[in-house]
Amino acid sequence: MRCSSASRQSDLLTGVAVKQLLGVILAGLLVVAAAAAPDDAEQVAGAEAAALAWLALTDSGSYAQSWDQAAGMFQGAISRESWISAVVNARQPLGKVISRKVKSALYTRSLPGAPAGEYVVIQYDTQFEQKATASEFVTPFRDKDGSWKVSGYYVK
């Protein structure tokens, strides 16, 4: 059965990986946007830097490399090929990024449906060529080696 682009995007949003990621996103949405506590500032700064580096790969169309650079839980939730297909269907219709600004960044040690660990849920207000007002949610996770890696991404 042949699927339309809209259907493929819908498939992306109903997949197991995205269900887990939606829990992460919902947690971020339910929390009142607030500045990170001073103790969390270092974690948030590191996570934001990792998120921006990862987003640069995605923005440039280096989708396979963005999967390669993602956290192990991301890679375990969606195959490389499925990620490439999903992100092409979700991002290409939007066009290039015109601007991206952090709306909120929340450091937390737990998220619904995700293993315990260190996370930062970052919401960006993003303007694309074909969509003037969008929200991107990126969730970096502190990996075992201490580095921050993206464990979730969603654009709406």
Quick description:
The chain has helices at about 5-15, 15-30, 40-60, 65-70, 70-75, 80-90, and strands at about 95-110, 120-130, 135-140, 150-155. With about 160 residues, it is an alpha+beta fold. The chain has one domain: Nuclear Transport Factor 2, Chain: A.
Account of the 3D structure:
This protein is of the alpha+beta class. It has one domain (5-155): Nuclear Transport Factor 2, Chain: A, CATH 3.10.450. The chain is 44% helix and 25% strand. It has 6 helices and 4 strands, in the order ααααααββββ. The protein has helices spanning 5-14, 16-30, 41-59, 63-68, 72-77, 80-91; strands spanning 97-108, 119-128, 134-142, 148-155. Strands 1-2-3-4 form a 4-stranded antiparallel beta sheet. A hairpin with a 5-residue loop joins β2 (119-128) and β3 (134-142). The longest helix has 19 residues, at 41-59. The protein is globular, with a radius of gyration of 15 Å. It starts with a helix and ends with a strand. Mean pLDDT is 82; it is low at 1-36.
The helix/strand class is alpha+beta
Overall average pLDDT: 82
Q: Which architecture does the CATH hierarchy give at level 2?
A: Roll
Unreliably modeled segments: 1-36
What is the chain-wise order of helices and strands?
HHHHHHEEEE
For the largest beta-sheet, the strand count, sense and barrel status come to:
4 strands, antiparallel
> Strand fraction band?
25-35%
Number of E-state strands:
4
Major sheet: order of its strands? 1-2-3-4
Using the CA coordinates, give the radius of gyration.
15 Å
